[in-house]
Automatic annotation (TrEMBL):
<protein>
    <recommendedName>
        <fullName>Phosphoserine phosphatase</fullName>
        <ecNumber>3.1.3.3</ecNumber>
    </recommendedName>
</protein>
<dbReference type="GO" id="GO:0000287">
    <property type="term" value="F:magnesium ion binding"/>
</dbReference>
<comment type="pathway">
    <text>Amino-acid biosynthesis; L-serine biosynthesis; L-serine from 3-phospho-D-glycerate: step 3/3.</text>
</comment>
<dbReference type="InterPro" id="IPR023214">
    <property type="entry name" value="HAD_sf"/>
</dbReference>
<dbReference type="GO" id="GO:0036424">
    <property type="term" value="F:L-phosphoserine phosphatase activity"/>
</dbReference>
<keyword id="KW-0718">Serine biosynthesis</keyword>
<feature type="active site" description="Proton donor">
    <location>
        <position position="22"/>
    </location>
</feature>
<feature type="active site" description="Nucleophile">
    <location>
        <position position="20"/>
    </location>
</feature>
<keyword id="KW-0460">Magnesium</keyword>
<comment type="function">
    <text>Catalyzes the last irreversible step in the biosynthesis of L-serine from carbohydrates, the dephosphorylation of O-phospho-L-serine to L-serine. L-serine can then be used in protein synthesis, to produce other amino acids, in nucleotide metabolism or in glutathione synthesis, or can be racemized to D-serine, a neuromodulator. May also act on O-phospho-D-serine.</text>
</comment>
<keyword id="KW-0479">Metal-binding</keyword>
<dbReference type="InterPro" id="IPR036412">
    <property type="entry name" value="HAD-like_sf"/>
</dbReference>
<dbReference type="InterPro" id="IPR004469">
    <property type="entry name" value="PSP"/>
</dbReference>
<dbReference type="GO" id="GO:0006564">
    <property type="term" value="P:L-serine biosynthetic process"/>
</dbReference>
<comment type="similarity">
    <text>Belongs to the HAD-like hydrolase superfamily. SerB family.</text>
</comment>
<dbReference type="Pfam" id="PF00702">
    <property type="entry name" value="Hydrolase"/>
</dbReference>
<dbReference type="InterPro" id="IPR050582">
    <property type="entry name" value="HAD-like_SerB"/>
</dbReference>
Length: 226
């Protein structure tokens, strides 16, 4: 098991950094915001808490939550335009610094492609570097389920994405940063997990993560030291 010093060295010399999105890169949980927007906020927030704690499988929780929300194409687009996701303080500077160092940055999210792509565009992250769940709609815009072939739709999916990135780009060191159990589970195959508690603290993650931060400035300082 790597020590904290070794994890910091991996971060400073990483080829790629993967960020979770909900409650990490952005302040809110996208699915909870969508649920509120569609009038079923409380019921869905409780399901999210259970999923984040790792007590139900991610796909089961996602299926149940979306079954309650049943968002239309129009509602998703209106949410993005009326209530755009709020970036977490420090993330813009951190991503910019990683880009300056030639590090590839990816957004790996159990959230929804359309919302995550909006976030990516604000951070100058190419769409090709976004891995998220795709909602499906009927021709009239009504909810038709989600693409269950996406690796991010199931437990262990973020690890599958990292394995894919390593195979495709021959990355030697990949870092995963996030607030939830699904992020922590991605290491291995990820080489370093950094728990993030700047928006919400998940007890299980805080207790188990060797490296736990509450502000992205802490990571910027690590990069400045080299």
């Amino acid at each position: 098991m790597a020590s904290l010093l070794e994890l910091k060295e991996i971060f400073r010399s990483a080829d790629a950094v993967c960020f979770d999105v909900d409650s990490t890169v952005i302040r809110e949980e996208g699915i909870d915001e969508l649920a509120k927007f569609c009038g079923v906020g409380d019921a869905v927030a409780e399901m999210t808490r259970r999923a984040m704690g790792g007590s139900v499988t991610f796909k089961a929780a996602l299926t149940a939550r979306l079954g309650l929300i049943r968002p239309s194409y129009e509602q998703v687009q209106k949410l993005i335009s009326d209530n755009p996701p709020e970036l977490t303080p420090g993330i813009r500077e951190l991503v910019s610094r990683l880009h300056q160092r030639g590090v590839q940055v990816f957004l790996v999210s159990g959230g929804f492609q359309s919302i995550v792509e909006h976030v990516a565009s604000q951070l100058n992250i190419p769409t090709a570097n976004v891995f998220a769940n795709r909602l499906k709609f009927y021709f009239n815009g009504e909810y038709a389920g989600f693409d269950e072939t996406q690796p991010t739709s199931e437990s262990g999916g973020k690890g599958k994405v990292i394995t894919l990135l390593k195979e495709q780009f021959h990355f030697k060191k990949v870092v995963m940063i996030g607030d939830g159990a699904t992020d922590m589970e991605a290491c291995p195959p990820g080489d370093c997990f950094i728990g993030f508690g700047g928006n919400v603290i998940r007890k299980q993650v805080k207790e188990k993560a060797k490296w736990y931060i509450t502000h992205f400035d802490e990571l910027l300082k690590e990069l400045e030291e080299r």
